[in-house]
């Protein structure tokens, strides 16, 4: 939802292909950002180093540190949501009908 | 002490607020909590670290239903089995937890507030260890219970040991059942003397993700103290006119969405 809102602010239309893992979302340096996130969460240590180097080359060292923070945040915050059974706020559900359908999120449960 | 700060470990610049948040989060994990001692909380961190390599958890992750596979966790923990079970499931397959499982877990003797504190410890430990992994830094070592380890030459710095003391065992009287699987402390129900889980957030900025652990306010406060530094403070989430980090809002949200998707998080 926030990705779409930031796209509106910048006058850009970001796509869902980055979220599903196929593209770059139309976001600047989207591919190295996604490769890094996937390597940290799913890859072996050997896979992380090249993803890290590519990300630093794309967004700089400070950007790399901030990207690592976001990956860490969402790898943790999802566990709070899942383990406590909080519902998605109705306004968020209403604003993300198309995205949830396209990504198949509503089929998970 | 070497290793207490993220900047002690990193061969690159680290924001001062991130550096301080890292230290506070580790201090929080090592201190007596609301329902568990510091030693128990660090034992949870250790169990959390073992979970991704656990064969039972891998079998469950590959199964159509994670509840169809029984067995014993690969664990060196001295924590009770039901605590290890909760930690491993939350760490490795949280997207498929169910309210029925939670009810069974609580009925087995693990009370709701004690469970909530486990969620808090696992979440904070996951954030810290994921950050270290992403940055290519060693995870801070944990002191073995009862062991005297000099540990000055550990790659993650001196081993973290627990702070002695007793948990406060404080349950907010205003917590009510209804919104989630567990009782929630709404902002308007915080009584005088209650620890405020929401800090300086006005009620309109309190989202359900903040409410989730509010039965144990200290865990909400500690998690989001860290989260404000590794992600963004709540007020900055929709302030698209200002970039608070070295990557843009859009770049952060792309990462957030992909990580949530990989974890199959519906929220």
Written account of the structure:
- The complex is a heterodimer of chains A (109) and B (267).
- Helices cover 72% and strands 0% of the residues of chain A.
- Chain A is mostly helical and 109 residues long.
- Chain A has one domain (28-104).
- In chain A, α3 (30-42) packs across α4 (45-84).
- The longest helix of chain A has 40 residues, at 45-84.
- Chain A is globular and about 40 Å long.
- Chain A starts with a helix and ends in a 6-residue tail after the last helix.
- Chain B folds into 2 domains: 6-162 and 180-187 and 194-230, no CATH class; 235-267.
- Chain B is built from 10 helices and no strands.
- In chain B, α2 (16-30) crosses α7 (112-135), α4 (55-62) packs across α5 (81-93) and α5 crosses α7.
- The longest helix of chain B has 24 residues, at 112-135.
- The radius of gyration of chain B is 19 Å and the shape is globular.
- Chain B starts with 5 loop residues before the first helix and ends in a 5-residue tail after the last helix.
- In chain B, 44% of the residues are buried.
- At the A-B interface, α1, α2, α3 and α4 of A face α7, α8, α9 and α10 of B.
Total E-strand runs of chain B: 0
Q: How widely separated are the two ends of chain B?
A: 39 Å
SSE string of chain A, helices as H and strands as E:
HHHHHH
- Report the total helices of chain B: 10
Structural class based on helices, strands and sheet pairing of chain B: mainly alpha
Return the structural class of chain A. Answer: mainly alpha
Which segments of chain B are poorly predicted (pLDDT under 50) over 5 or more consecutive residues? Answer: 146-153
Please write out the topology.
The complex is a heterodimer of chains A (109) and B (267).
Chain A: H1 2-10, H2 17-20, H3 30-42, H4 45-84, H5 90-95, H6 97-103
Chain B: H1 6-9, H2 16-30, H3 38-50, H4 55-62, H5 81-93, H6 99-107, H7 112-135, H8 208-211, H9 217-230, H10 249-262
